[in-house]
Write the structure tokens for this entry.
Amino acid sequence: MNTTALMVGVLVAWLIIYRFNKAGYEKRQWAYSLLLATFPVYYWVFAVYAKDGSALLNEILTGVFFIATAVVACKASRVSGLLLLALGFIGHGVYDVIHLSLYRDSVAPSWWPEFCGSIDVLLGVYMLYLLHKYTPKTNTS
């Protein structure tokens, strides 16, 4: 395990959350959706850089799922959108970790699973926090 990449990923996730909060992006449905939609592009760039057409095709096919999740989350209600984003980010974190198991020759750098995976999972957990924060409370008494 690459602890340095993991810790840098945690720092980057914190900075993203901090900046989005300060800029007021959390109140805009599109902000985190757009961020999720960009994550597959990194794998596309890695495949192009490696000049691996087969990897590029695999990454495009997988990436379409995360982009579609982001688009649906952007158009959904606040609660549904946050839930979809949480699932999308955490799902992408899992994808980062199991990527090498899915494809024999990973085009991503060896430190990528810890770096990107930690960002993804922390953003997903933060979406769950926002979901809890913005879900209307019902009075059962």
In short: The chain has five helices and no strands. Helices lie at 3-23, 29-49, 53-75, 78-102, 112-134.
